[in-house]
Amino acid sequence: MPNEDSSPVRSTYRHGDLRRALLDAGVALAREGGPGAVVLREATRRAGVVPNAAYRHFQSHQVLLEAVRAVALSELARAIEAEIDATRRMRDPRRRARAAFCGVGLGYLRFARREPGLFRTAFAARPFDVNERAPHDGAARGASGMDPFELLCHTLDGMVDAGLLPPVRRPGAEFLAWSAVHGMAMLVLDGPLRGLDEAGCQALAERLVAMVEQGLLAEKV
């Protein structure tokens, strides 16, 4: 008797389709269960091929995980870009620069809440070294050609250009902003804020991002 829970399989692939099918399966696994769910054997089962067929495209579990991680980073970048794009209609360059910076944090936190599996995969697959080139060339980048960290840096530079952030205070600002926002994301996903509803999460996100922005721009006492 057929197993009704079995995923449909394909018996043949056109040239070049198998890698995409395996990657799509890996991304679906990450979306469902985070990096620990990305298993090469399960990806091949979902793609409808025998495990040995995958090795031409992904030589190991880690190679597949890195490719999935790149997609997760790209999706995060695009979520941030959507927030930044919404600020482009603002005519005042100073207001636009501040809104774009805040958009990075808000997009980051919104993505973490809506795509927890992909978010965890983006950063838990392996340590994210900002000095390394993103894996798989442009695969980890958004439509702008920037990855999430580069988008943050770009908006900080924009605040310098707009005369909001003194150049002397620019170095290292990305790490201060990133650590605060990422910490909030982890509290929402795995910490004491995980039971908070969407409205509560959004309110805290807006307060946090405003706090970070005001802290960076505040005059020294």
Automatic annotation (TrEMBL):
* Residues of the DNA-binding region: 39-58
Q: Which SUPFAM superfamilies match?
A: Homeodomain-like, Tetracyclin repressor-like, C-terminal domain
Pfam families for this protein: TetR_C_33, TetR_N
Domain (HTH tetR-type) spans 16-76
- Source domain of life: Bacteria
Which N-terminal residues, if any, form the signal peptide?
none
A GO molecular function for this record?
DNA-binding transcription factor activity
Keywords, ordered alphabetically: DNA-binding, Transcription, Transcription regulation
Whether Ribonucleoprotein counts among this entry's keywords is no
**Known InterPro entries for this protein?**
Homeodomain-like_sf (IPR009057), HTH-type_TetR-like_transc_reg (IPR050109), HTH_TetR (IPR001647), MT1864/Rv1816-like_C (IPR025996), Tet_transcr_reg_TetR-rel_C_sf (IPR036271)
| Protein's name according to its UniProt entry | Regulatory protein TetR
